[in-house]
Amino acid sequence: MFYGVINEAGYISSIHDECIPGLCVELALPEAATQANGFRYKYVDAAWTDGFSGVADGDLMTAYAAMQSAAVIVEIKAQKMPFIKLEAERQIVATDWKVQRATEVDAATGSTTLAAVYTERAAVRSASNAKETALTALTTFDEVATFDPIDF
Fold first, then answer.
1. How far does CA 87 lie from the centroid of its chain?
2. Minimum mean pLDDT among 11-25, 78-92, 136-150: which range?
3. Is 97 found in the same domain as 141?
4. Is 5 in contact with 13 (CB distance < 8 Å)?
5. Is residue 48 located within the same domain as residue 79?
6. Which residues lie closer than 8 Å to 71 by C-beta, 6 or more apart?
């Protein structure tokens, strides 16, 4: 009988001959599980399912690696997205003094300099939205790993 450690996606991330307290699931893997094919099982709704239905055992690790890679890409994207938002906020807050100054200048002279500051802020928001769209569109680990969320 084998025991497995389940990752956040519900898949087996490691297989052991005995259950390691606090690390593995207190449930034995299915009868058909071996050291070689145990990675194909996923724990969903309190039951084991074949997470790689239609994939032969010989191709299992390639399919498992692709699934893990996709999960890592999603995780890195989720980690980088808040930095885009924080950078946009930083850039907009950095223009607060311009809003105050332009408001005063416009009030004193009748000019419309405040509109230019609002245009600058709108450009930051547009750049932030474009950066989020660009991050979402990335598909490879290298693209996501080298993506700079604050360069806009």
1. 18
2. 11-25
3. yes
4. yes
5. no
6. 7, 8, 9
CB–CB of 138/73 below 8 Å?
A: yes
8 Å CB contact between 145 and 76: yes
Do both 109 and 45 map to the same domain?
A: no
The DSSP result for 28-52, as a single string, is BPPTT--TTTGGGEEEETTEEEETT
Q: Are residues 79 and 141 in the same domain?
A: yes
Looking at the fold, whether 82 and 141 belong to one and the same domain comes out as yes
Q: State the residue range of the domain holding 103.
A: 74-146
What's the domain count of the chain? 2
Tens-digit pLDDT profile for residues 64-73 = 788 888 888 9
- For residue 41, the cross-strand partners are 50
List, for residues 27-59, the tens digit of each pLDDT value: 677 788 777 777 788 888 878 888 888 888 888
Question: Among residues of the chain, what percentage have pLDDT more than 90?
Answer: 53
Residue with tokens 């932030």: 128
Same domain, 42 and 13: yes
Provide the 8-state DSSP code for 55: -
The label of the residue with tokens 């950095």 reads 94
What's this model's pTM, rounded to 2 decimal places?
0.64
Residue 68 falls inside a structural domain: no
